[in-house]
Amino acid sequence: MSIRLVRYAGDAGPAWGVVRHGGEIVPLPGDYPTTADVLGEGVKHARELLAEPGAAGTDVAAVKVLHPVPQARVYCQGANYRSHMIESGMDPD
């Protein structure tokens, strides 16, 4: 079963939550300063919260969703065409 984690702007700053089926965010307990932290301990808490149907949640449309990896730079090399790969010095074969 997949787990949908979300980082969002909470009342006290950035927070992590798990998205329930139906689009509700249930806040994760604890503090997760890095994405690695939430992928470790946070996933355990998320599974527990999803097993509790009565846990209070907030509609995902009511919060500001934040980037999951703060201050990250994402680089992408387009290589969807053979000509792009050759131009980039990649071996298309």
Report the span from N to C terminus: 36 Å
DSSP summary, beta strand count: 5
Uncertain regions spanning at least 5 consecutive residues: none
SS class:
alpha+beta
**Count of helical regions:** 2
Based on Cα principal axes, name the global outline. Answer: elongated
Give the DSSP E fraction (strand runs of 2 or more residues).
15-25%
The main sheet comes to: 5 strands, antiparallel
Could you give the order of strands across the largest sheet?
A: 4-3-2-1-5
Give the SSE string.
EEEHEEH
- Computed over alpha carbons, the radius of gyration is 18 Å
What's the overall average pLDDT, rounded? Answer: 84
Helix amount, in percent? 10-25%
Structure description:
The protein has 93 residues and is an alpha+beta fold. It contains two helices and five strands; from the N terminus they run βββαββα. The chain has helices at residues 35-50, 82-87; strands at residues 5-10, 13-20, 24-27, 58-59, 65-66. Strands 4-3-2-1-5 form a five-stranded antiparallel β-sheet, covered by helices on one side. The longest helix has 16 residues, at 35-50. The chain is elongated, with a radius of gyration of 18 Å.
